[in-house]
Amino acid sequence: MNTIHAIKAGSTGRPDFDAIAAWIPQGAHVLDLGCGDGTLLRFLQEQRAVTGYGVDINDANVLACARNGVQVIQSDLERGLSDFDDHSFDFVLLSQTLQAMRNTEHIVREMLRVGRAGIVTFPNFGYWKNRLHVLGGQMPVSPNLPYAWFDTPNIHLCTIRDFEDFCATRNIRITGRTVLTGSRPVTRCANLLGELAVFQFTA
Hints:
By secondary structure, this protein is of the alpha/beta class. It has one domain: Vaccinia Virus protein VP39 (Rossmann fold, 3-Layer(aba) Sandwich), CATH 3.40.50. The longest helix is centred in the middle third of the chain and has 11 residues. Strands 1, 2, 3, 4, 5, 6, 7, 8 and 9 form a nine-stranded mixed sheet that branches. It starts with a strand and ends with a strand. α3 links the parallel β3 and β4. It is built from seven helices and nine strands; from the N terminus they run βαβαβαββαβααββαβ.
């Protein structure tokens, strides 16, 4: 498994974007699921000259993508990716959205059907500050988990170890892992000291 030990700072100030870009070759064809306002896809267009589409269900996000010069398809990810053919993309991305999906296994399988590789990012619920919040009797609130318990879209929070076990039991091969706290890569005790996880995987 390839772990990135150094992240080169990018223009967005988002080290997770830089970690994703480090795995994507020039000119790759990319599908960005739950793309929001298209910031990630635009960054990859600028840094890696990628082609592709974003997918989002929110009207405001679709309009924002258009303003950002990102091609976007309005669709509900929970229904799957039936509009896309098998292996029609080099990479399928799911950035900070995995934990909000109701059917996690279905979307991961669809990512691997549509793309040759998948990349996900998610907040690590095993991060030590999150553990302290829970020990203190409260759900954590932080920059990576910014919602209170009663209004959060997150329904399947997990740890780094949870995701690795999920892949292992489903014969999904993890081909890259970067763990970050702020802009700093974490290479030791990642499940305890890492705040945000970035995984690349294939079937």
